Amino acid sequence: MAGPDRQKIQQLLADLADAADGAPDMALMEICGTHTVSLFRSGVKSLMPTNVRLISGPGCPVCVTSCGYLDTACELASRKDVIVATYGDMVRVPGRTDSLEAARGRGASVEVIYSARDAVKLARENPSRNVVFLAVGFETTTPATAAAVLEADAAGLENFFILPGHKILLPAMEMLLSAGDVPIDGFLCPGHVSVILGAAAYEPIVRNHHRPCVVVGFEPANMLDGILRLIRQVAADEAKVENAYGVAVSEGGNEPARRMIEQVFIPAATEWRAMGSIPDSGLALREPYARFDARAKFGVEFGPDYEPPGCRCGEVIQGKLEPDRCPLFGVKCTPTDPVGPCMVSSEGTCAAWYKYNRHRPGR
Amino acid sequence: MSQSPDSDNKPNAGKVVLAHGGGGELTRQLLAERIIPKLVNDLLAPLADSAVIDAPPGKICMTTDAFVVQPLEFAGGDIGRLAVCGTVNDLVVMGAKPLALSLALVLEEGLDLDVLDRVMDSIADSAKQAGVKIATGDTKVVERHSAGGMTITTAGIGTLPASMPPDAKTIAAGDAVIVSGLLAEHGLAVMIARKSLGISSTLASDVAPLGGLVDAMIASGGRVKFMRDPTRGGLAGLLADLSEQTGRNIEIDERALPLSPAARHASELLGLDPLTVANEGKVVAVVAAEDAEKVLAACQAHPLGRDAAIAGRIGETNDWPLVELLTAAGGRRIVQRPYGEELPRIC
Amino acid sequence: MCLAVPGKIVEMLDDGDGDAPAVGPVAAVDFQGSRVDVSLAMAPEAGVGQWVLVHAGFAIALLDEDEARETWEYLEASGVGEMPEQLKAGSSGDIGGQ
Q: Of A53, A208, A234, A266, which is least surrounded by CB within 10 A?
């Protein structure tokens, strides 16, 4: 199997070791579930110098989806006239007492789709039933939902709805830095969210908090390059935005995508699992598209958030706790028998840790 | 659309109905016209309640399997081919020579008879290719929405030479782990065949009977200590089991793993780890270190083993044995058996 | 939620769904053997031969072919042949109403 150029990687690793040598201990946070997984899967995490700690932030959109959202999704799935359309990531995540997987086992219609467009197609092909699309994800995915709503609108569909759950990244980054609970020396910024937002979007973080921000892709060499740049900045006490993923990310980002988001959505306060409500951190449908909100159609509202006893996902997703420091990790909370979303989601920090890292079973 | 003889304007024309499973005239017709003629052999011919088979001296190997794949037909194969090859392969990796299979069909009312015809043809072809006879069978029909169109359950028996099965207790540090060819093709092909994903691909299932390949590997004279086919759970599941069974670490080299660009790309698209995706035409073998090249060469000389490679090595015993992957980037990470249903992700 | 994969536009489609309006053009994108219908709503200027980065059925960025190969080193320099009819999505085998 072809892979990254070994020489290139060796060079990057050597440069990285040089840059880290003599530098202070540092914590670099990635805020993208795909980064969490990619860093583990590629083995890059195992190659870090001892003074460089990579911590995971709230980058897994499924993990930060509140219990109330899941419960409402399960309730809607249980209605005979509803087909819930969802990305695969959501199916196993437990709400307070139910999950989509369990609901499906009881006969609920839960369709796993690859694209928001498929949800619209599902609605067209099933005119006698209502399709509710679980709209979760950060800015990479939000424009797709916006496009789906616009398409349903243009087609005059009356059986297509979304359960709004999209989140905005920057308010979460600001919140983490303002709370100050976790020392964060720099950010690996999510490559594909940045395709939409543009590298310039991180300027406020640099300006207001003096933290370096490097936009990074997902291939091993690219991730190493991004980390190298961060280390150099931290070591020199610099703070600026750097774009290490220029092949896909521009300064200004994807304008048509942002225009669609603007047209369909408006920022709103949203509950993040175990982090409470963060102002302007989520997206609600604008008035012309309000009829696509499943809550209005079915007369439901999101229930309260809920933390299972002993669950510390909230701390894990904020980078306050490493998975193997949670007393439940690997003992009461495992991927086959999970307590919280961080262990269930394929991109959850705990799941990634359990799956890819060294650990003792039953610890 | 339907080419079958009873295709006309009658409401149930060309479809399976409940009465086909009733044991009466329609059942007799279904068996006589669409099933038995395709499977005909001396063991089946008496059509008695049980087949009578000459039992050679020594041990008998027996296996059973159920097949519930959706969709029923996919690039590279169908549920019928899967049923024959899957059962046969469970026998051959034990070093057994397959003797006979049983075949129980559960058909769903409303199934197109054309589909049944194609699946039966596939079963017949696969059995011939595998050199095995369908000795006995059963056919039932259930209500709509109860069986996904069709499910198949099999049992298979085979004869074991005295030297078989391979003894996994002799596995030692340094032994080579050989993978017989390109990974992940079956699972990906089946997932892509589900219309809901809107993806089409050149990928096709690798489903195939492995008797010839296994014979070639054993005939090479190298010491084969363990064989298994990496079906559900993929290579990751198999190695996790092996690691637990032997109490040894296993190290795999990502760069040595045979994976086609198409499979690599499809995995990326669907967010799947190719190590966890099912294979239906591959063998994983543990071979004594000094015999590794010899067995590998025998594998590569066989049409089903052309892309075979030494994927890694068995390591030392350990209180907590782990399977570790040396990544393409030169780092390391643990490989574990997948948790269950691998769903296409966008994350 | 960031899985995005580079591919090449091989065909422009009318709207992918035959009779329903779409928000922008739709194209068939090839990923070295796998083919997906992708909306170009966020990359309306893309045309046949253009490399794009695809996420969940949408092209989110245009890619320069050489840069793409450099970044995603597993990309093979190969041309793709015609997709055989029987391998296209929509193959027979499902029973009606399933």
A: A208
